[in-house]
Design goal:
Elements lengths: L2 H22 L14 E3 L13 H14 L7 E3 L23 E2 L5 E3 L2 H4 L30 E3 L17 H4 L8 E4 L18 E2 L9 H6 L2 E9 L2
Parallel strand pairs: 5-8
Antiparallel strand pairs: 1-8, 2-8, 3-4, 5-6, 6-7
């Protein structure tokens, strides 16, 4: 066989093999889509504990996750308060998330408006406070428990007064400080008002100072936060 014929045959074989390989490549799975979603819990935080890069970066994280799941056409805000510091006024979480109503990945309405959200009538809880993928966040009784959600807020959704840190230095610290957290599943070690609170259960704490990823995990968290579309 001549060298030219051998080269042609080898090229054809390679082409057929490459074609077969291309056909056998698995298709990239489509992420679950929920274009009408207006509320979710972040399935994962940025990964630096309560240091989310500040409140604007937290908003961007919400927007990015929403975009992946077909709901990026709305303006998204993180449900986080900030405290007065450095000449900047406090920011109330309740004032930055729009007017509602809000619905989760499955289309279930969790609150009709801001006042409803901050009342006992809201529908937030284990089965309804879903991630951007429509997944339940594991809470009390699961290992690991990830039910602590960062809010830095009072039960009314407002910022704490300056002085005692409740926002891990306005969401820029992964060491010293503390963050007020709520319980996504609205359950705790006791059956009391604080344990049932979705947005104001207890401050974070831990050997690293209270704001690290490991500190948040040690008390049942993972640096997650709520995201709301402002409509």
């Amino acid at each position: 066989m001549s060298k030219s014929k051998a080269l042609i045959i080898a090229t054809l074989v390679l082409g057929v093999t490459s074609g077969v390989d291309a056909q056998q490549q698995p298709a990239t799975p489509q992420l679950p889509q929920a274009p009408n979603m207006t509320f979710f819990v972040t399935g994962a935080g940025p990964g630096k504990g309560a240091d989310v890069g500040g409140i604007e970066s937290a908003d961007q994280h919400c927007q990015m996750l929403a975009q992946r799941h077909g709901a990026g056409g709305k303006t998204w805000r993180a449900y986080l308060s900030t405290q007065e510091a450095g000449g900047k006024p406090a920011v109330n979480a309740r004032d930055r998330i729009g007017n509602g109503p809000w619905q989760n990945f499955k289309g279930q309405v969790v609150a009709a408006n801001v006042d409803d959200l901050h009342s006992d009538n809201n529908k937030l809880g284990f089965d309804t406070s879903l991630s951007e993928r429509g997944q339940i966040i594991p809470g009390v009784g699961f290992a690991p428990n990830r039910h602590d959600v960062l809010t830095g807020s009072t039960p009314e959704g407002r910022a704490f007064p300056p002085g005692e840190d409740r926002t891990c230095r306005n969401w820029t610290s992964s060491t010293q400080g503390a963050a007020m957290v709520g319980h996504i599943d609205r359950k705790g070690l006791r059956d009391d008002v604080a344990s049932r609170s979705w947005n104001s259960s207890h401050p974070s704490r831990g050997p690293d100072g209270g704001c690290s990823q490991s500190d948040l995990r040690s008390t049942g968290g993972d640096g997650l936060f709520y995201c709301f579309a402002t409509q």
